[in-house]
Amino acid sequence: MGSQIFDDEQIASFCLDKLGAKPDCIERPGGASRKTVLVEVNGQRMAVSKRNSIGRAKLEADILSKFGNTEAVPRLVLQSDRFVVQHFVAGQRLPEVLETSPETARNKQLVAAGKSLLFLQKTGQENGLIGQVPMIGARPNWHEDFASAPTRLAGQLGLEPAMFNRADIIDKIRPKAPSFVKWDSRPGNCLWTNDGGVVWFDWEHCGIGSTEDDLVWLLADEWAPISLSAEQSLLKNALENGTFSLDELTFRFRAKAILHTSIRLGLIFNHKGEGSWWNARHAMQLDHIGVTLPHVRRLCRRARLWALASPEFGDLSHFFDNVHEYAELLPNPS
């Protein structure tokens, strides 16, 4: 068990000071090392999150305040220093819902989650957030480093690096039509509410990117099932938020999704190390990375399909086959 980010005594003191009473109970649904806990104060359930900086906490609180009437984000209670307090929302994380639903329902759920992100992007634009939130990827050589993700993965695993047109991909994925984006829009940050709604939380990393970015985080995650129909539907919907043709937007999405997949695979192999594969259900319940062989298979299969779609991706399809074979041969000590 990881060390606690803030202990029960600190939480009780914070609640007494900011909410007027000590909590009746404290829950840690993501485990002791996570930055969010659930508390009940005077019969009201709330989520208390500790962010990395006051700036991040203020950014998140501002977004929750601006989006408060959309019902697509939790309602803000207060922000103080590095802490953000939100009203509790009842429901299940999207990965749990996707895991237990039939294929037709999964496709609809992915589309609903993606449409919610696109709606919030548009809402952010209408609220004048361009110029008020940080630019994502502003660091020099950020896009060059992003496009090197498959090469880094090859080095990490000791595999032959893939040959692909890195320079052309870098040029084609550079910012073109700035859009407000959530950024960290992985399925684990999405709640499927008890009445069938979609709520997105953890907004401290939002900023200015491109409209396809949120769809990349959603659809290229190991917890998202492979769904070409959901991808096509959402890309068509995303045209309303940008200035791209469908072909250009699709290329940008697939290129970034391949690079994002390489990063996810690197995280999975890093967490596995020389140990065993993780229990998928336990990882899902704690909203952890999917350090399981089925998740690696899913990521490699999906990235291979994306890589086959355009000559700029070179032999990346073969590279993901090699990553899959590498994973299958890894020891799995009990």
Automatic annotation (TrEMBL):
What does the UniProt keyword field contain? Transferase
An example Pfam family from this entry, by short name, is: APH
Identify the species of origin. Answer: Pelagimonas varians
* The UniProt record lists the keyword Hydrolase: no
Q: Which residues form a coiled coil?
A: none
Domain Aminoglycoside phosphotransferase, chain residue ranges per copy:
27-225
Q: Does the keyword Zinc-finger apply?
A: no
Query: What are the TM regions of this chain, as residue ranges?
Result: none
Its name, as the record gives it, is Phosphotransferase enzyme family protein
Q: GO molecular function of the protein, one example? A: transferase activity
